[in-house]
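Record format v2
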Amino acid sequence: MDAIIWSRIQFAMTAAYHWLFVPLTLGLALVMAIMETIYVVKKDEFWKKTARFWMKLFAVNFAVGIATGIILEFEFGTNWSNYSWFVGDIFGAPLAIEGILAFFMEATFFAVMFFGWDKVSQKFHLASTWLTGIGATISAYWILVANGWMQNPVGTTFNPDTVRSEMASAAAFWDVISNPVAVSKFFHSVTSGWVTGGIFVIGVSCWYLLKGRQKRFAMSSIIVGGLVGLVGSGAVMLSGDSSGIHAAEFQPMKLAAAEGLEDGGRGAAFTIVPGIRIPKMLSILATHDIDGYVPGINDILNGYTDNEGNMVPSVAEKMAMGRKALDALAEYRSLKDTDPESAAAARAVMEENVRYMGYGHLEKPEDVIPPVGVVFWAFRFMIGLGMLLALVALLCLWFAWKEKLPKMRWLMWIAIICIPLVYICGQCGWIVAEVGRQPWTIQGLLPVNVAISSLGAGAVKTTFFVFLAVFALFLAIEIRIMLGAIRKGPEVEPENI
Amino acid sequence: MGQPVMGKIKDIPASIWRFYRDGFRNMTWGRPLVWLILLKVFILFAILRVFFFKPAMKGLTDSQKSDTVAERITRQPHIQIDTLNQ
């Protein structure tokens, strides 16, 4: 395998590892904030102890997850230096804001949340708990602004002098941060974190019920976790719907791959699994129109007319325009100091074709097709598991509310099994989003084979296995500490951390 | 009236310092987590960053970086455009 494959595997592993911690942070933050709010409103010490227990698990997850995202930034500079330079103007601001915000909000409110019991007022402590979660959520927004721009590079222009995509004005910055892909990705990712938090709380609480321990604590936690999980599931479905619309509009190949749709058309059917289809459903999901046109893989390769009546060029035509842009870029750069007039003409040609510049790097039209099998099945696992998780959250909430859950051992075991499943579901979502947009690092502008640095496969392989060892070690430590804390259970008496 | 207010303002940094100091001192189960974070930060910045993740274009000026990326970006696969237009 070459450096590109190893770099991609390494980046995928790091991102997947990072995403083991983020959703639980987002979800547990909401759960414990709700519990502490109940404590402040009802003045019942039980809710304080309950909130503190989940805060303890939040802290374990946070401690192991902290700074795992920084490794991605290391990889940008080392493995993906062409890409890093190309996007530097766009990524600089969101990632800097994210870093500063995360550091200051977390260093301040996280500390108050853990050290401040009995030292600051109840309301200030409650505000700190909420702000810890809100800070993590806002951090996620800035990261997803950066990711959303790669999926739909709006608000920027390519500068042939600096060879970067740049924001020319404050309006451009607004376009980047209000990118519809970033917005729907943000809601989809954050609310999937709520599902993770809800399912985690339900699963752990069911373990206590199965062991005959901490009944009041477990039942109360299941009700809060169930509500968070259910609300999260509903919001995931709504934001998933808008993600589907955006994929159809901005990344039709991703949608075609997720559906395994070779030839599209009007009134397209949705495939549940191969052989079982719901007529018209794909058109409804992708266009909100029962007869909306959804292009298939072959349509995208050969060119088609979209729902607004616009002719979308074939991939071969886009490749030809991309090469014109690249040739004009090279010509502009070679002439700009010696022949300004010819350079200006070359620049005009480049600007006319720059939209398809990335296609100029492809060797054949089929290079735009992502691994269909991986995306197709990851999409189905994501949806199937998501529906199962919503159902389990609903059943556990209902039967806990009716106080019948402790007698339903089968449901409690399913809830425990759902803890690994909620992580698999989240990972499948990212596989659909990221594998589905291959071969692009930046949609239409920069494919992975050009984004990579000039480095040997050996160096990447070494760091891959170093990471694998370090990640596995820290994950094992987290699981061990987490299981130890769960086995010990919530404290009867107040304690300091 | 101004003096007590100034006194309180001056006391803020010391209060914050005491808050964090006492918080860390009184830790029980949180202590191994802090060590875990410090260990991880050390591995990340003192080992991985220093020995394994050197920025590929470190030491280049912005202009040199532009030239390097332009050279890489304008290098195309050997396929005739005519073939694509057929």
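The radius of gyration of chain A is 25 Å.
The beta strands of chain A are 157-159, 164-166, 265-266, 270-273, 276-278, 293-294, 304-305, 311-312, 440-442, 446-447.
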